Amino acid sequence: MSGFVFKQFKVEHDHCAMKVSTDGILLGAWANLSGAKSLLDIGTGTGLLALMCKQRSNELDITAVEIDESAHTQALQNIANSPWPTISIKHQTIQSFSSEVKFDVVISNPPYFNHSLKGENTARNTARHTDSLSFEELINAFKRLSHSRSRFNLILPSVEGALFIELATQNGLYLNTHCQVKATPNKDISRSLMTFSYVKSDLESSTLCIRNLDNTYTADYIALCKTFYLKM
């Protein structure tokens, strides 16, 4: 089976460089969508984040942008086969994307390898490396496509997350919520779930552990993701 079956939709990912992953599921379940009417998903890949956010808030008007042609085609199919065929998927770079609507929420599971060795798969390199979308460009895209009350949700590995926080702060954004994720209780923190905005607030910090030592999902992870996983 090539696809990933969720409770309310299925995601095929055989033509996408970046497959359905725990990172994407975490962000889609965790992102702050409260009060939002419009959402932009930057680098949608399979369409996973757009679909998860639509399941969480049916009122959301969602636009997703994807640079890779194969991923764009697959996202279109995943959206068309879902209960929410009105999600709009654009095939272009976020740098060239413009919108009259300023989005209430922007969400992204962005490329993050800055200097690591590249493989031979060009699509996977584009999806994983920041050459096609630097952190600076990502922040600029958020600033250009948002309004004063907009929020920006994203997930990054911890080291890159720290770099992103520094860069975002230099660009007038504030980190409002930070959830640090570890795979198991005895592993180091590996991921940062972050919400930024233009509004300074007390930082809401938390830690989330995905699996117990016996490899079962933790109660926290189940509480976050059970509305999506088929068998949870």
From TrEMBL:
Q: Name one GO molecular function term.
A: methyltransferase activity
Q: Which InterPro entries match?
A: DNA_methylase_N6_adenine_CS, SAM-dependent_MTases_sf, Small_mtfrase_dom, tRNA_Adenine-N(6)_MTase, tRNA_adenine-N6_MeTrfase
Keyword list (alphabetical) reads:
Cytoplasm, Methyltransferase, S-adenosyl-L-methionine, Transferase, tRNA processing
Please provide the Gene Ontology terms (biological process) for this protein.
Answer: methylation
UniProt domain Methyltransferase small: residue ranges: 36-121
Catalytic activity, EC: 2.1.1.223
State the compartments where it is located.
Answer: Cytoplasm
Q: What is its main location?
A: cytoplasm
Q: Which domain of life is it from?
A: Bacteria
Provide the reaction this enzyme catalyses.
Answer: adenosine(37) in tRNA1(Val) + S-adenosyl-L-methionine = N(6)-methyladenosine(37) in tRNA1(Val) + S-adenosyl-L-homocysteine + H(+)
First-level EC class = transferase
Q: To which protein family does this belong?
A: Belongs to the methyltransferase superfamily. tRNA (adenine-N(6)-)-methyltransferase family.
Q: Which HAMAP family match?
A: tRNA_methyltr_YfiC (MF_01872)
Q: What PANTHER family does the annotation carry? A: TRNA1(VAL) (ADENINE(37)-N6)-METHYLTRANSFERASE
Its function, per the record, reads: Specifically methylates the adenine in position 37 of tRNA(1)(Val) (anticodon cmo5UAC).
Q: What is this protein called?
A: tRNA1(Val) (adenine(37)-N6)-methyltransferase
Source species: Pseudoalteromonas fuliginea
